[in-house]
UniProtKB/TrEMBL annotation:
Stored SMART domains: UDPG_MGDP_dh_C (SM00984)
GO MF: NAD binding; oxidoreductase activity, acting on the CH-CH group of donors, NAD or NADP as acceptor; oxidoreductase activity, acting on the CH-OH group of donors, NAD or NADP as acceptor
Protein's UniProt name: UDP-N-acetyl-D-mannosaminuronic acid dehydrogenase
Stored InterPro entries: 6-PGluconate_DH-like_C_sf (IPR008927), NAD(P)-bd_dom_sf (IPR036291), UDP-Glc/GDP-Man (IPR017476), UDP-Glc/GDP-Man_DH_C (IPR014027), UDP-Glc/GDP-Man_DH_C_sf (IPR036220), UDP-Glc/GDP-Man_DH_dimer (IPR014026), UDP-Glc/GDP-Man_DH_N (IPR001732), UDP_ManNAc/GlcNAc_DH (IPR028359)
Species for this entry: Brevibacterium sandarakinum
Gene3D superfamilies attached to this UniProt entry: NAD(P)-binding Rossmann-like Domain
Length: 419
């Protein structure tokens, strides 16, 4: 009998309370599990234990407040024992775009001393192929008394269950999206499915751990390649004096064509990062994926090259930079091309006044806040004062902007909102 069946409310420790870990912990706690969330950030832990949330995600605040008040979710900086562990820690890339598995290793070393046998450990972090095995090796190296062989009282079970949700819709898609379950050993996959069945209404797609890891990377690389096509089209069209937004709209009338929309680059922890994991795994056979990453990584430079000559012709130029998040209507700035562009503008135009508008944050990120020529400014104030208006993110507030405010301005619309 597995650990879930032994308890009316299974015990779950979620390691990492970021943009995936906290929503997962909250949904599990609201669906029948007793959940302890673990994070190294004491401030985030305190906020969660107060029934609040440390970042913006629609519908999450109500769920967190409810499960905390009921005692079904609590946060801590100390990893507890649990029947089930979900590891949802960051997986950034290191120098040379190599995967950095140090957070996974640290999580494994924290879990290892607590294990008694028969626990289920699920890696949710988006990871290169072999990361679940790496987590298992880390734990078994620290605890040689444990085993991957199923059936023993000392057996530990490992699975990979990648998240597949869209920021801004996480609380909905956690419940409705199909879920890939990758088994590393024994009945780990079946046990993981039983746990996720507490809240997930989608289909469960069973496979092995390495295929599950690669599936998530493939989903994001597919998106990255298609965005790169759109971004490359936008640069070609610019040189030919063609409106790329109209071009794509016309082409998409073909019944078998569905070109995505270009932008100032690609951000977020998934699409901007995950394809590099494939490149690192098979560098000689991933030329298309590498090229797509290079195209998208180069797009912020293209935006700057268009704007800088105009800005340098204006004394004490006033620039309204609309948006810092990596996608619309969220506060997530990770890998954001908008954030990169604003930082580069500040460096290359030291005499400029760069009025940054980001309605989803209350303060600038540290690397921008320290620049004397960058301020966080209210939208209408910034646009009225600007010589140049640079639209970087298509937040709803910017879509609804009074267009008469753009009269007599130099406008750079990287999202096609006003084109």
């Amino acid at each position: 009998m597995n650990a879930i069946a032994l308890n009316n409310r299974p015990s779950v420790a979620v390691i990492g309370l970021g943009y995936i870990g906290l929503p997962t912990a909250a949904v599990l706690a609201s669906s029948g599990a007793d959940v302890v969330g673990v994070d190294i950030d004491q401030d985030a832990v305190d906020v969660i234990n107060a029934g609040q949330v440390p970042f913006v995600e629609p519908d999450m605040a109500t769920t967190v407040a409810g499960v905390v008040s009921q005692g079904f979710l609590k946060a801590t900086t100390e990893t507890p024992h649990a029947d089930n562990y979900i590891v949802a820690v960051p997986t950034p890339f290191a120098e040379g775009h190599k995967p950095d598995l140090s957070y996974i290793e640290t999580a494994g070393k924290q879990i290892a001393p607590l294990l008694e046998g028969n626990e289920l450990i699920i890696l949710e972090s988006t990871s290169p192929p072999g990361a679940t095995e790496y987590l298992a090796d880390t734990i078994l190296t620290a605890r040689p008394d444990l085993t991957l062989k199923p059936g023993s009282s000392q057996s530990i079970y490992f699975a990979h269950c990648p998240e597949r949700v869209l920021p801004g819709r996480i609380m909905i898609e956690l419940r409705t999206n199909d879920r890939i379950i990758g088994t590393l050993n024994g009945e780990a996959g079946e046990r993981a499915r039983e746990l996720y069945e507490l809240f997930c209404e989608g289909e469960f797609l069973m496979t092995d751990a390495r295929t599950a890891e690669m599936a998530k990377l493939t989903e994001n690389a597919y998106r990255d390649v298609n965005i790169a096509f759109a971004n490359e089209l936008s640069m070609i069209s610019d040189g030919l004096d063609i409106n790329v937004w109209e071009l794509i709209q016309l082409a998409n009338h073909h019944p078998r064509v569905n070109i995505l929309q270009p932008g100032p680059g690609v951000g977020g922890h998934c699409i901007a990062v995950d394809p590099w994991f494939i490149v690192a795994t098979a560098p000689e056979r991933s030329s298309l994926i590498r090229t797509a990453r290079e195209v998208n990584d180069a797009k912020p430079g293209f935006v700057l090259d268009k704007l800088l000559p105009q800005a340098k012709r204006i004394n004490d130029v006033q620039i309204a930079a609309l948006g810092l998040a990596f996608k619309p209507n969220i506060d997530d700035l990770r890998e954001s091309p908008a954030r990169q562009i604003v930082g580069d503008l500040a460096d290359q135009l030291p005499q400029a006044n760069i009025m940054t508008v980001e309605p989803n944050i209350d303060e600038l990120p540290a690397e921008l806040d320290t620049r004397e020529n960058v301020t966080l400014t209210e939208m209408n104030e910034a646009v009225r004062a600007a010589d140049i208006v640079l639209l970087l993110v298509d937040h709803n507030e910017f879509i609804r902007l009074d267009r008469t405010l753009l009269a007599q301005k130099i406008v750079h619309d990287t999202r096609g909102v006003w084109s």
